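Hi U.,

Before I forget, here's the chain from the pilot set. I'm dumping it here mostly so it's searchable later in email.
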Amino acid sequence: MAIAIVDYGMGNLHSVGKAVERLGYEALVTGDRDAILGADGVILPGVGAFGDAMVHLRESGLDAVVKEAAAGPTPLLGICLGMQLLFSSSEEHGQHEGLNILPGKVVRFAPGELKVPHMGWNRLQFLHPENPLFAGLEASHVYFVHSYHARTDVESDLLAVTDYGHPVTAIVGRGSNFGMQFHPEKSGELGMKLLGNFLALTGSKA
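Structure:
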């Protein structure tokens, strides 16, 4: 069995796939419903605008597939825009409905002294260190590039934050569904260890 990386026409598919393989797992880049639902784990990547991504997902029918995967026991990870898509809505370039897997809204950073996009290495703060995603890890720095951030409606869904003028959602999770605002595959040792801990939850080794 493999880790399915959802191919809906937007995302850093190659770099995520290579990172999965470096950690000893088989990566399958696919837009096939049966392959996604039959995988040991699912990764929803994403680069670009929220609204465009949702159009691609709906036109391909993959929005329903991701929701079906999220409703089951298979571990699911959204990365960067993929994490934001898990939420109910976004205000990026208008109002857009998301996958509504996690209740909450994606909003733009407020104008002020801090630069937008939020770009650079920032330290994580684990809010629920007992979560298996953080097993054996100490909070350190990961690399962010984003102009919008998620606000969770349910406090317990917020697993880690970083500081950028105020606490900013960095990692979310509920049950077997997770999201990371940063790209773990581009975030050094801690990023790869976080990705490795997620993959360990799938029980799938190459």
